[in-house]
Amino acid sequence: MGIQIGDIYIDTPVFLAPMSGVTDQPYRKMIRKQGPELVFSEMIASREMLNSENSGIRKLKTDCEAEYPLVVQLAGWDPGDMALAAKMSEDRGAAVIDINMGCPAKKVVNKFAGSALMQDLDAANSIIRSVVSAVSIPVTLKMRTGWDSNNRNAPELAKIAESEGIQMVAVHGRTRCQAYKGEADWSFIKKVKDNVRIPVIANGDIQTVYDAQKCIRISGADGVMIGRGAYGKPWFLNHVTKFLKMGKVLPSPVLLKQKTFLLEHLDLMMNYYGFENGARMARKHITWYTKGLPLASESRQRIYSTKDLSSLINEIENLYENALEQMAV
Ligand SMILES: Cc1cc2nc3c(=O)[nH]c(=O)nc-3n(C[C@H](O)[C@H](O)[C@H](O)COP(=O)(O)O)c2cc1C
Fold it and tell me: Domain containing 283: what range?
Protein backbone atom coordinates (compact mmCIF):
# COMPACT_ATOMS: atom_id res chain seq x y z
CA MET A 1 0.00 0.00 0.00
CA GLY A 2 3.09 2.27 -0.02
CA ILE A 3 3.21 5.49 -2.03
CA GLN A 4 5.99 7.71 -3.34
CA ILE A 5 5.80 11.50 -3.19
CA GLY A 6 8.97 12.84 -4.79
CA ASP A 7 11.84 11.40 -2.75
CA ILE A 8 9.57 10.52 0.15
CA TYR A 9 8.34 6.95 0.44
CA ILE A 10 5.37 6.38 2.71
CA ASP A 11 4.88 2.78 3.72
CA THR A 12 1.36 3.03 5.12
CA PRO A 13 -0.32 6.31 4.19
CA VAL A 14 -2.24 7.40 7.28
CA PHE A 15 -1.94 11.17 7.42
CA LEU A 16 -2.86 13.84 9.92
CA ALA A 17 -5.28 16.27 8.21
CA PRO A 18 -4.53 19.99 8.23
CA MET A 19 -6.75 21.69 10.83
CA SER A 20 -6.56 25.42 11.53
CA GLY A 21 -6.25 26.10 15.23
CA VAL A 22 -5.46 22.44 15.94
CA THR A 23 -2.51 21.06 13.95
CA ASP A 24 0.02 23.52 15.32
CA GLN A 25 3.59 22.46 15.98
CA PRO A 26 2.98 20.97 19.47
CA TYR A 27 0.09 18.83 18.21
CA ARG A 28 1.97 17.69 15.12
CA LYS A 29 4.93 16.70 17.27
CA MET A 30 2.66 14.66 19.55
CA ILE A 31 1.15 12.84 16.58
CA ARG A 32 4.44 12.39 14.76
CA LYS A 33 6.09 10.83 17.84
CA GLN A 34 3.54 8.02 17.75
CA GLY A 35 4.64 7.02 14.27
CA PRO A 36 2.52 8.44 11.43
CA GLU A 37 4.69 9.24 8.49
CA LEU A 38 3.24 12.53 7.28
CA VAL A 39 1.57 15.43 9.04
CA PHE A 40 0.08 18.60 7.57
CA SER A 41 0.43 22.11 8.98
CA GLU A 42 -2.55 24.35 9.58
CA MET A 43 -3.59 26.23 6.47
CA ILE A 44 -1.47 29.36 6.01
CA ALA A 45 -2.83 32.22 3.93
CA SER A 46 -0.19 33.07 1.32
CA ARG A 47 -0.79 36.83 1.54
CA GLU A 48 -0.54 36.75 5.33
CA MET A 49 2.73 34.87 5.06
CA LEU A 50 4.18 37.34 2.57
CA ASN A 51 3.08 40.29 4.68
CA SER A 52 4.92 38.62 7.57
CA GLU A 53 1.89 38.97 9.77
CA ASN A 54 2.43 37.30 13.10
CA SER A 55 0.11 34.34 12.79
CA GLY A 56 1.32 33.51 9.27
CA ILE A 57 4.90 33.43 10.45
CA ARG A 58 4.05 31.61 13.68
CA LYS A 59 2.35 28.88 11.68
CA LEU A 60 5.42 28.54 9.48
CA LYS A 61 7.65 27.95 12.51
CA THR A 62 8.58 24.31 12.25
CA ASP A 63 10.98 21.93 13.85
CA CYS A 64 12.20 20.52 10.55
CA GLU A 65 14.08 17.59 12.02
CA ALA A 66 11.41 16.37 14.42
CA GLU A 67 8.63 17.00 11.95
CA TYR A 68 10.24 15.79 8.74
CA PRO A 69 8.60 15.31 6.30
CA LEU A 70 6.28 18.23 7.11
CA VAL A 71 3.64 19.28 4.61
CA VAL A 72 2.98 23.04 4.69
CA GLN A 73 -0.49 23.87 3.45
CA LEU A 74 -1.06 27.15 1.63
CA ALA A 75 -4.27 28.92 0.69
CA GLY A 76 -4.74 31.86 -1.63
CA TRP A 77 -6.18 33.07 -4.90
CA ASP A 78 -3.24 34.84 -6.49
CA PRO A 79 -0.84 32.54 -8.39
CA GLY A 80 2.10 34.92 -7.82
CA ASP A 81 1.52 35.12 -4.05
CA MET A 82 1.07 31.38 -3.84
CA ALA A 83 4.34 30.77 -5.70
CA LEU A 84 6.28 33.15 -3.43
CA ALA A 85 4.75 31.66 -0.29
CA ALA A 86 5.58 28.17 -1.52
CA LYS A 87 9.21 29.12 -2.12
CA MET A 88 9.39 30.77 1.30
CA SER A 89 8.02 27.59 2.90
CA GLU A 90 10.51 25.43 1.02
CA ASP A 91 13.37 27.68 2.17
CA ARG A 92 12.17 27.29 5.77
CA GLY A 93 12.20 23.51 5.64
CA ALA A 94 8.86 22.30 4.28
CA ALA A 95 9.26 18.88 2.67
CA VAL A 96 6.03 19.13 0.68
CA ILE A 97 3.68 21.99 -0.25
CA ASP A 98 -0.05 21.33 -0.18
CA ILE A 99 -2.51 23.63 -1.92
CA ASN A 100 -5.84 24.13 -0.17
CA MET A 101 -8.84 23.84 -2.47
CA GLY A 102 -11.13 22.45 0.19
CA CYS A 103 -11.67 25.11 2.83
CA PRO A 104 -15.38 26.01 3.02
CA ALA A 105 -15.04 29.03 5.37
CA LYS A 106 -16.74 32.19 4.12
CA LYS A 107 -13.74 34.40 4.83
CA VAL A 108 -11.66 32.13 2.57
CA VAL A 109 -14.13 31.44 -0.25
CA ASN A 110 -15.18 35.10 -0.40
CA LYS A 111 -11.62 35.84 -1.45
CA PHE A 112 -11.96 33.13 -4.05
CA ALA A 113 -9.55 30.79 -2.31
CA GLY A 114 -9.99 27.33 -0.75
CA SER A 115 -12.97 25.39 -2.13
CA ALA A 116 -14.09 28.41 -4.23
CA LEU A 117 -11.34 27.40 -6.66
CA MET A 118 -13.37 24.30 -7.49
CA GLN A 119 -15.80 26.68 -9.21
CA ASP A 120 -13.16 27.94 -11.61
CA LEU A 121 -10.85 25.21 -12.83
CA ASP A 122 -8.84 27.67 -14.96
CA ALA A 123 -7.99 29.71 -11.88
CA ALA A 124 -7.21 26.49 -10.01
CA ASN A 125 -4.96 25.40 -12.87
CA SER A 126 -3.00 28.70 -12.83
CA ILE A 127 -2.35 28.39 -9.11
CA ILE A 128 -1.23 24.78 -9.41
CA ARG A 129 1.09 25.57 -12.30
CA SER A 130 2.58 28.56 -10.55
CA VAL A 131 3.26 26.70 -7.29
CA VAL A 132 4.66 23.58 -8.95
CA SER A 133 7.12 25.62 -10.99
CA ALA A 134 8.20 27.75 -8.01
CA VAL A 135 9.60 24.91 -5.85
CA SER A 136 11.75 21.84 -6.19
CA ILE A 137 9.88 19.88 -3.50
CA PRO A 138 6.70 17.89 -4.26
CA VAL A 139 3.35 19.69 -4.37
CA THR A 140 0.08 18.03 -3.37
CA LEU A 141 -3.54 19.20 -3.47
CA LYS A 142 -6.41 18.88 -1.01
CA MET A 143 -9.94 19.27 -2.28
CA ARG A 144 -13.56 18.44 -1.63
CA THR A 145 -15.79 16.42 -3.97
CA GLY A 146 -16.96 19.69 -5.53
CA TRP A 147 -18.77 22.95 -4.81
CA ASP A 148 -22.26 21.48 -4.42
CA SER A 149 -24.14 18.29 -5.24
CA ASN A 150 -24.70 19.43 -8.84
CA ASN A 151 -21.04 20.24 -9.37
CA ARG A 152 -18.93 17.41 -8.06
CA ASN A 153 -15.90 17.97 -10.27
CA ALA A 154 -13.13 16.52 -8.07
CA PRO A 155 -12.24 13.87 -10.71
CA GLU A 156 -11.73 16.63 -13.29
CA LEU A 157 -9.69 18.83 -10.96
CA ALA A 158 -7.54 15.84 -9.98
CA LYS A 159 -6.85 15.13 -13.65
CA ILE A 160 -5.76 18.74 -14.24
CA ALA A 161 -3.63 18.59 -11.11
CA GLU A 162 -1.92 15.41 -12.26
CA SER A 163 -1.15 16.89 -15.67
CA GLU A 164 0.40 19.96 -14.00
CA GLY A 165 2.75 17.90 -11.82
CA ILE A 166 0.81 17.52 -8.57
CA GLN A 167 2.09 14.36 -6.87
CA MET A 168 -0.82 13.37 -4.63
CA VAL A 169 -4.40 14.48 -4.03
CA ALA A 170 -6.43 14.21 -0.86
CA VAL A 171 -10.20 14.32 -1.16
CA HIS A 172 -12.60 15.15 1.66
CA GLY A 173 -15.78 13.31 0.66
CA ARG A 174 -18.12 16.29 1.06
CA THR A 175 -19.00 19.26 -1.12
CA ARG A 176 -18.28 22.83 -0.05
CA CYS A 177 -22.00 23.43 0.45
CA GLN A 178 -22.22 20.49 2.84
CA ALA A 179 -19.53 22.05 5.03
CA TYR A 180 -19.37 19.34 7.74
CA LYS A 181 -22.99 18.17 7.47
CA GLY A 182 -24.15 14.76 6.30
CA GLU A 183 -21.71 11.95 5.75
CA ALA A 184 -18.49 11.87 3.76
CA ASP A 185 -19.13 10.08 0.47
CA TRP A 186 -16.25 7.63 0.24
CA SER A 187 -17.70 6.03 -2.92
CA PHE A 188 -17.39 9.31 -4.84
CA ILE A 189 -13.67 9.36 -4.04
CA LYS A 190 -13.45 6.19 -6.19
CA LYS A 191 -14.27 8.35 -9.23
CA VAL A 192 -11.22 10.46 -8.46
CA LYS A 193 -9.07 7.40 -7.95
CA ASP A 194 -10.21 5.94 -11.28
CA ASN A 195 -9.37 9.17 -13.12
CA VAL A 196 -5.70 9.59 -12.14
CA ARG A 197 -2.52 7.60 -11.64
CA ILE A 198 -1.07 9.69 -8.80
CA PRO A 199 -1.87 8.57 -5.23
CA VAL A 200 -5.31 9.50 -3.92
CA ILE A 201 -5.93 9.86 -0.20
CA ALA A 202 -9.47 9.58 1.18
CA ASN A 203 -10.64 11.84 3.98
CA GLY A 204 -13.74 12.37 6.09
CA ASP A 205 -15.42 10.76 9.10
CA ILE A 206 -12.79 8.18 10.00
CA GLN A 207 -13.32 7.64 13.71
CA THR A 208 -12.29 3.99 14.16
CA VAL A 209 -9.74 1.62 12.66
CA TYR A 210 -12.62 -0.21 10.97
CA ASP A 211 -13.80 3.04 9.36
CA ALA A 212 -10.34 3.44 7.84
CA GLN A 213 -10.43 -0.05 6.38
CA LYS A 214 -13.96 0.42 5.05
CA CYS A 215 -13.10 3.82 3.58
CA ILE A 216 -10.16 2.33 1.67
CA ARG A 217 -12.26 -0.57 0.44
CA ILE A 218 -15.05 1.70 -0.81
CA SER A 219 -12.91 4.49 -2.24
CA GLY A 220 -10.07 2.37 -3.59
CA ALA A 221 -7.81 5.11 -2.19
CA ASP A 222 -4.11 4.64 -1.51
CA GLY A 223 -4.43 5.81 2.07
CA VAL A 224 -6.43 7.87 4.52
CA MET A 225 -6.23 11.29 6.09
CA ILE A 226 -7.65 11.75 9.58
CA GLY A 227 -8.68 14.95 11.32
CA ARG A 228 -11.29 15.00 14.07
CA GLY A 229 -10.86 11.30 14.82
CA ALA A 230 -7.50 12.15 16.39
CA TYR A 231 -8.88 14.83 18.76
CA GLY A 232 -7.50 14.01 22.21
CA LYS A 233 -6.09 10.73 20.87
CA PRO A 234 -2.61 11.28 19.49
CA TRP A 235 -2.19 7.49 19.37
CA PHE A 236 -5.13 7.00 16.98
CA LEU A 237 -3.27 7.36 13.68
CA ASN A 238 -0.71 4.85 14.85
CA HIS A 239 -3.50 2.41 15.74
CA VAL A 240 -4.97 2.86 12.24
CA THR A 241 -1.55 2.27 10.68
CA LYS A 242 -1.02 -0.94 12.67
CA PHE A 243 -4.49 -2.17 11.79
CA LEU A 244 -4.14 -1.49 8.06
CA LYS A 245 -0.67 -2.97 7.97
CA MET A 246 -1.02 -6.00 10.20
CA GLY A 247 -4.70 -6.37 11.01
CA LYS A 248 -3.83 -5.77 14.65
CA VAL A 249 -6.33 -3.91 16.86
CA LEU A 250 -4.43 -2.11 19.61
CA PRO A 251 -6.32 -1.31 22.81
CA SER A 252 -6.77 2.33 23.85
CA PRO A 253 -4.06 3.35 26.32
CA VAL A 254 -5.04 2.97 29.97
CA LEU A 255 -6.17 6.16 31.69
CA LEU A 256 -2.83 6.85 33.39
CA LYS A 257 -1.07 6.58 30.05
CA GLN A 258 -3.65 8.94 28.52
CA LYS A 259 -2.84 11.42 31.28
CA THR A 260 0.86 11.11 30.41
CA PHE A 261 0.03 11.95 26.78
CA LEU A 262 -1.93 15.02 27.86
CA LEU A 263 0.84 16.25 30.18
CA GLU A 264 3.43 15.75 27.46
CA HIS A 265 1.27 17.68 25.01
CA LEU A 266 0.77 20.42 27.60
CA ASP A 267 4.52 20.70 28.05
CA LEU A 268 4.99 21.13 24.28
CA MET A 269 2.30 23.83 24.20
CA MET A 270 3.87 25.68 27.14
CA ASN A 271 7.30 25.63 25.51
CA TYR A 272 5.88 26.83 22.24
CA TYR A 273 3.37 29.50 23.35
CA GLY A 274 4.31 30.37 26.95
CA PHE A 275 1.80 30.06 29.82
CA GLU A 276 -0.96 32.49 28.85
CA ASN A 277 -1.41 31.52 25.20
CA GLY A 278 -0.45 27.92 25.92
CA ALA A 279 -3.18 27.57 28.57
CA ARG A 280 -5.70 29.10 26.16
CA MET A 281 -4.71 26.72 23.35
CA ALA A 282 -4.68 23.80 25.82
CA ARG A 283 -8.36 24.20 26.73
CA LYS A 284 -9.81 22.47 23.69
CA HIS A 285 -7.23 19.69 23.85
CA ILE A 286 -7.92 19.09 27.56
CA THR A 287 -11.64 18.90 26.75
CA TRP A 288 -10.95 16.32 24.02
CA TYR A 289 -8.55 14.21 26.11
CA THR A 290 -10.92 14.08 29.06
CA LYS A 291 -14.21 13.73 27.17
CA GLY A 292 -16.56 11.31 28.89
CA LEU A 293 -14.47 10.91 32.07
CA PRO A 294 -16.45 10.96 35.32
CA LEU A 295 -16.57 14.43 36.96
CA ALA A 296 -14.46 15.89 34.13
CA SER A 297 -16.75 18.81 33.36
CA GLU A 298 -16.60 20.07 37.00
CA SER A 299 -12.80 19.78 37.04
CA ARG A 300 -12.44 21.52 33.69
CA GLN A 301 -13.87 24.75 35.09
CA ARG A 302 -11.14 24.77 37.75
CA ILE A 303 -8.51 23.85 35.16
CA TYR A 304 -9.51 26.73 32.89
CA SER A 305 -9.24 29.28 35.67
CA THR A 306 -5.77 28.33 36.91
CA LYS A 307 -3.21 31.12 36.88
CA ASP A 308 0.05 29.22 36.74
CA LEU A 309 1.47 26.02 35.32
CA SER A 310 1.86 24.06 38.55
CA SER A 311 -1.80 24.62 39.53
CA LEU A 312 -2.84 23.68 36.01
CA ILE A 313 -0.90 20.41 36.24
CA ASN A 314 -2.28 19.78 39.76
CA GLU A 315 -5.84 20.20 38.54
CA ILE A 316 -5.24 17.81 35.64
CA GLU A 317 -3.75 15.25 38.07
CA ASN A 318 -6.84 15.67 40.29
CA LEU A 319 -9.18 15.21 37.36
CA TYR A 320 -7.65 11.86 36.44
CA GLU A 321 -7.40 10.75 40.08
CA ASN A 322 -11.10 11.51 40.63
CA ALA A 323 -12.03 9.76 37.40
CA LEU A 324 -10.07 6.66 38.41
CA GLU A 325 -11.72 6.64 41.87
CA GLN A 326 -15.18 6.93 40.35
CA MET A 327 -14.44 4.18 37.87
CA ALA A 328 -13.23 1.87 40.66
CA VAL A 329 -16.51 2.06 42.61
C1 LIG B 1 -11.16 22.66 13.23
C2 LIG B 1 -10.89 22.30 11.80
C3 LIG B 1 -9.98 23.02 11.06
C4 LIG B 1 -9.71 22.67 9.72
N5 LIG B 1 -8.76 23.37 9.04
C6 LIG B 1 -8.41 22.94 7.79
C7 LIG B 1 -7.31 23.55 7.11
O8 LIG B 1 -6.62 24.44 7.65
N9 LIG B 1 -7.02 23.10 5.86
C10 LIG B 1 -7.74 22.09 5.25
O11 LIG B 1 -7.45 21.71 4.11
N12 LIG B 1 -8.77 21.50 5.89
C13 LIG B 1 -9.09 21.89 7.13
N14 LIG B 1 -10.08 21.23 7.81
C15 LIG B 1 -10.72 20.06 7.19
C16 LIG B 1 -9.99 18.76 7.60
O17 LIG B 1 -8.67 18.75 7.10
C18 LIG B 1 -10.73 17.52 7.08
O19 LIG B 1 -10.80 17.61 5.68
C20 LIG B 1 -12.14 17.41 7.64
O21 LIG B 1 -12.18 17.70 9.03
C22 LIG B 1 -12.74 16.02 7.39
O23 LIG B 1 -11.93 15.05 7.97
P24 LIG B 1 -12.28 14.37 9.42
O25 LIG B 1 -13.71 13.88 9.35
O26 LIG B 1 -11.27 13.27 9.56
O27 LIG B 1 -12.14 15.46 10.45
C28 LIG B 1 -10.39 21.59 9.11
C29 LIG B 1 -11.32 20.87 9.87
C30 LIG B 1 -11.57 21.19 11.18
C31 LIG B 1 -12.57 20.37 11.98
Answer: 255-328
